[in-house]
């Protein structure tokens, strides 16, 4: 599911980046086109504007030259001597030539880039002006070259005509031309304004298209991602403070709330443990377990008052915090109510299920004690309640006991490294003949100060410290080494029995690991018996323990049920025909000759084993009377202090030799154990 979700997000990211790239490319293309078109258009407009300005300047110069022509014409008209006339004539001719050249330049430029109205005006006005000026020039020349009074009069008339021509027609024509140029410049300004509006419109349309096709989806996606990120942040914060199944505060949230109280304010804590929840999850499924947890949470919410705080601090543990004054008796009564309400049977998916509830209690009544320490005290009391059942009120000696257990766990880890863990071997014999049928490897700790320690002192601590697996590895390796050495020395030890915890049996690779270890010592599966505590078996064919047992039996290992009669699930295992021997617990052997009902139960277990073609071995045999009675009941094998105590590997060969001598003489139980 997670991989599918990741793939979907990846596709969305690809689409998002594709849109973004499209928007960027479209923006660059449109900006380039707009810039190029605008640059070209504005360049043409600027050129036309500059040309128009130059034209206006040239026309203004034509006006100045026309004024100069008028002055020269007046001078030519009033010349009093031929010399003055010739000089005026030359000046007039020079001004006339300059006027003609300027007019020709204006005409040619206008014809090349000009407005049609300007062209028409210049075609009409400048040529006419030039013709009139040439005519006036000719008259002036004629008047200057003759002394005839009539010609002089004609020259004067021509001068006056030229003055009128320059003063009215030329001036008016040039003024019209200038006005046209100004009108043309105004039209250029209108074009610039229109082009600017067109560019702005195109830019706006381009932006709207890009916004519609790319930017809006991108921003929408970014907004959705931001919203999802904020929602995920809220979910993470809630997950850090609340339990996902029940919605109750978790341990961190609980501690934060309790620390807001005054350090000496009344506060009681009930640490509630749902015993057996893991087994229910394994046998009936996680949905059933979750339903039970929700049921417990609902009941706890109804039991407490409004100011009380319920929190789920672990998978199978709750805390009920009471921030008010409640004495020890009141807390005990509240614990009893919790056990009755939460531990009552309920029907889940058609199956009636109940949870065993144990409670650890701690309180501060007027004492200054941090909330964290109070929760720890309640947890310590809960551990004690798991051993004793019901509810347990915290006391100082519990903390001391916990400290001692932690110290033992640390020493045990050091003992593993130092090689202080070693196997001791207790013999097993045939009940009828006394022949040795095997040995059971029992773990011992050779403590440097406390001496040789029985597993009762440390094995449970090892399991809770999760180092029992390392101890099991040491036991397997050293036991197989001892068996191989005995075989090499010719010692008649047919089989080695070794205990395996439920945790070890849940390892799917256990069979392969055992086969590898046996192969290293040139041994076979028939040389090893796997002992399983009856209490470790679960009434479920799908349990990993049952599957491992079936695999081991199929590989040729002997399967033995240890402490038979003290558990609750052995018959489930027996029906699979994987067990080769039952070990009757010593509690039945101890009272065998004193209590007839115990004798009947023992006989029934032996008959059950024989009916299923399984061997029966009695543990804890210490006297000849017990041996005789067990043999009468049909028991196949014996084990106990009356046969032989657990001993080191080096002590077993002398014992075997001594036992064989006793057996050949007809009595294989030591006299010290005789009843």
Task: Record keyword descriptors for this entry.
675 residues; eight-stranded mixed β-barrel; five-stranded mixed beta sheet; disordered C terminus
Describe it.
- The protein has 675 residues and is α/β, with parallel strands linked by helices.
- Helix content is 63%, strand content 14%.
- It contains 20 helices and 16 strands.
- The strands form three sheets. An eight-stranded mixed beta barrel has the order 8-9-11-12-13-14-15-16, surrounded by four helices. Strands 2-3-1-6-7 form a five-stranded mixed sheet, with helices on both faces.
- Helix 1 (2-77) runs antiparallel to helix 4.
- The two termini are 70 Å apart.
- Mean pLDDT is 78; it is low at 1-8, 143-147 and 671-675.
Short description:
With 675 residues, the chain is an alpha/beta fold. The chain is built from 20 helices and 16 strands.
The total of helices stands at 20
General shape: elongated
Mean pLDDT: 78
Strand order in the largest sheet: 8-9-11-12-13-14-15-16
| Percentage of residues assigned to helices | 55-70%
State the low-pLDDT regions, or none: 1-8, 143-147, 671-675
Q: Which strand-content bin applies to the residues?
A: 5-15%
Radius of gyration: 58 Å
What structural class do helix, strand and pairing data support? alpha/beta
Q: Could you give the count of β-strands?
A: 16
| Major β-sheet annotation | 8 strands, mixed, barrel
Q: Roughly how many Å apart are the termini?
A: 70 Å
